[in-house]
Amino acid sequence: MRKVIKLDGEICANCASKIQAKVEKLPGVNSASVNALTYKFTLDADEGAFDAALSRAVEIFEDIEPDCEVLL
After folding, report:
1. What 3 state SS string does the chain have?
2. CB-based contacts of 70: which residues, under 8 Å, 6+ apart?
3. Which residue among 20, 36, 40, 57 has the highest number of C-beta atoms inside a 10 angstrom radius?
4. pLDDT for 16-46, tens place per residue?
């Protein structure tokens, strides 16, 4: 399952890279992309693991870049 999610707030390329690397290591995640220029977060994960991966990804965003909100 693949979903593109909008981001709101500020995020730098360095933080986007850190977030992307951590999200890609989550169980069930096939790929992840955080684009600091277009403010989009793309998550591709197994259907059964998608909701858990998305929830954990939001926590990762909050930990690394609290000024950036994932618009669910």
Report:
1. CEEEEEEEECCCHHHHHHHHHHHHCCCCEEEEEEECCCCEEEEEECHHHHHHHHHHHHHHHHHHCCCEEECC
2. 5, 7, 41, 57, 58, 61
3. 57
4. 999 999 999 999 999 999 999 999 999 999 9
